Amino acid sequence: MTNPTVPAFGDRHGPRYGLRELSAIWLGKSAGTLLRILGREGTHVPGRIALWVCPTMLRTIERPTTVIVVTGTNGKTTTTNLLADAVDALGMNVVSNRAGSNLRDGIVAALITGVTLLGHCRREVAVLEMDERSALRVLPELAPDIVVCTNLTRDSIKRNAHPEYIAWILSSAMPTTTTLVLNSDDLITASLGSSSNRRVFFGVDPVGDEPREPSGSAVDASICPECDERLEWDFWRFNHIGRVHCPTCGFKSPKPDVHVGPVTSTTGLRSLALHSEKVDVHLKNESLVNVYNVAAVAATLEVLVVAPRTIGSVVESLTPPTSRFEDETVGGVRLVRLLTKGLVGVAVSRAFEYIVSVPGRKIVLLAVDETTDRFDGVENTAWIYDADYEYLADPSISAIYVGGIRRHDQALRLAMAGVDSTRIVLVESETHGADLVPLDTVDVVFNLHSNHNAGVTGDAVQRTLRTRLTEMAS
Amino acid sequence: MTLTIEMLFPEIANLHGDNANIDFLERCLPDSRIVQTGLNKTPEFVAGKVDLVYLGPLTERGQIRAIARLAPHKSRIEELIQSGTHFLFTHNAMECLGSRIVNSEMNYDIPGLGIFDFSTDVRMFDRYTGKVMGTFDGLPQPIVGYKSQFSMVSGSPELPGFMTTTRGIGRNPTTHVEGVRVNNFLGTSLIGPVLLMNPHLAEWLMSSLDSTPKREPVLHDLAVAAYDARRREFQDDRTWSAFERVAE
């Protein structure tokens, strides 16, 4: 790849360091080295130490020529990784917290890795993932050149309340000089910032059969921000993702500057429309979520003034991670493992939607409760009514095995969603369902677990199912 | 008897899964008529007979919108409360009927409808999440549920509560009195949804609405099983954190 000229977004004159700043850098670097020797990567500790020594470190550390922050409810880690890969592929020297914390400490830790012992920055671009709730503690001091927001949907009720709240935090913290790269198909994200911010919108074009009426439990942004009239959908995808217009006052979703078209049946390619040119691309992962992530990357590269054909080449080379997904076939039965973020109805809904989209006769083992939430406070189970369990009423799913402490709540939610009670099997243990599911009459078995129980439950269920399927095959 | 249940502003009052309260009533009362009244429509209760008026959780901007839409009908709402019409306002919906809502971080201090003598303080960086268990007059079983909120309500001691907490905080961390219950107006900050989490309360409400629920045995059994499991958990002292206690 050719190395494009990195535009200088702001005043990047090197800061004047005092002993305090240099001490913070040295101690941060030392901590990072020590942790690497101990085999621990990606921690926030070097940043925390540096901030303890020099609380203004985020403001004073010499930064790369261009600083990009990626945030949003879903896809920020993947988009950060893809964007860092893309920038790297373009030959730019990049620093990123891709393996580390996305809070203030983690961002400082990443920036410290990008400077020399004398504090001089040796990187051209920083691509930094930021937890959206950390915006007030990061953005005013960091003053990034670009903020990319993938989407803002409902998240943990306990931590994030509702997407309007997160949008308010982000807008309150946003420097007016920052260029915003925003999802035009998410009306809440599209509203970020102020009139002073330059905004570039990305989107994914509609395909013909997308619904024009929303369904599901969690549809935000239903009313016109100008006149309160109920919005009409040009197309609807999930939650409040789609494009809208107001039948009364004419308000509508912003037109995307960079947008990805549907797959063309003749070529198998998608069109990637940029400001000045349209290029055809082949994506390695065609899932809608990945297409949105790629659109965000392409829009950001365009802000970096990368040539359209180069952008096309780069996005074709990107390989999204698949760590939250395992798919194997044992003895003719597909065994699919999905890490499903409990407490977050939107994430759970997407997993359920995926299950229904897979052809064949299916069985689901469901253990998605974040019961560990009880140990650092309160486990609030209201989220299960924010998730679309209605997908699981699909007749292709012959049984749903619900395990664990919250099995009764889960079973009630399934029944409320219209799942026939004869298809709901309650199992006290989170893992025992794997011993009970009938495997001889199904095509696909889904193992759904959450973050906290990925090892204890997800691994154990996967092992049991794999062993049983292997025995059946032999 | 066909009941009319009016959901106010469902396009904005739909957070935290609480509208499942109405889904549950609809399942139990299949003959009932559910009316969804949008923001730009006149509520049916203004001119017609409504048996239960429901308002669910709102965003902060949503609260302001709801107050603006309900303000012209303040006297009608007062009249209906006095005459015994049922209301169920969950989470922060109840706050619309107090005297004021103050939100320093978002920089507003607005009057509510002023129907009840309480005010609301909203703190956007001090979100409270906790469990609640308490007594509801007329029910032998305790109410269980969750709070997850930015706001705390300070009300007159004479204003009757929805429940009296035996564990967990009430309208704020200094009182066991939670929510508001005046005649058949039920206002609670609990989310969950409260009727699904408390099937005995749902049955009480349907009975109070003078209606015989068409109980779905499976649904009822599952709801009671979930309730019993949660009640057992909430009765265990070890599940309660220090911040979930009322400052005596």
How much helix, percentage-wise, in residues of chain A? 25-40%
> What CATH architecture of chain B would you give?
3-Layer(aba) Sandwich
Instruction: Calculate the mean pLDDT score of chain B and round it.
Output: 95
Strand content of chain A: 15-25%
Question: How would a textbook summarize the main sheet of chain B?
Answer: 6 strands, mixed
* Quaternary structure state of the chains depicted: heterodimer
Q: Could you please describe the fold and organization of this structure?
A:
The complex is a heterodimer of chains A (474) and B (248). Chain A is an alpha/beta fold and 474 residues long. Chain A folds into 2 domains: 63-98 and 117-317, 3-Layer(aba) Sandwich (UDP-N-acetylmuramoyl-L-alanine:D-glutamate ligase); 325-473, Mur ligase, C-terminal domain (Protein-Tyrosine Phosphatase, Chain A, Alpha-Beta Complex), CATH 3.90.190.20. Chain A has helices spanning 19-37, 45-53, 57-60, 76-89, 104-113, 135-142, 157-160, 163-173, 187-190, 288-303, 308-317, 345-357, 407-416, 433-436, 454-473; strands at 66-71, 94-96, 125-129, 146-149, 179-183, 199-204, 232-238, 241-245, 258-263, 270-273, 278-281, 325-330, 333-339, 362-367, 397-403, 424-427, 444-449. In chain A, helix 13 links the parallel strand 15 and strand 16 (424-427). Chain B is α/β, with parallel strands linked by helices. Chain B has a single domain (4-239), classed as Class I glutamine amidotransferase (GATase) domain (Rossmann fold). Chain B has 6 helices and 14 strands. Chain B has helices at residues 20-28, 60-70, 74-83, 194-197, 199-208, 217-234, and strands spanning 4-8, 33-37, 52-55, 86-90, 100-103, 108-111, 118-122, 128-135, 143-149, 151-155, 163-167, 177-178, 180-182, 185-188. In chain B, the strands form 3 sheets. A 6-stranded mixed sheet of chain B has the order 2-1-3-4-14-13. A 4-stranded mixed sheet of chain B has the order 6-5-7-10, with no helix packed on it. Chain B is globular and about 50 Å long. Chain A binds chain B through residues 157-159, 161-162, 164-165, 168, 217-219, 222-223, 228-230, 345, 374, 377-378, 380-387, 405, 408-409, 411-412, 415-416, 421, and chain B through 11-12, 14-20, 23-24, 27, 38-40, 59-61, 65, 106, 124, 127, 129-131, 146, 148, 150, 191-193, 196, 218-219, 222-223, 225-226, 229-230, 239, 241, 244.
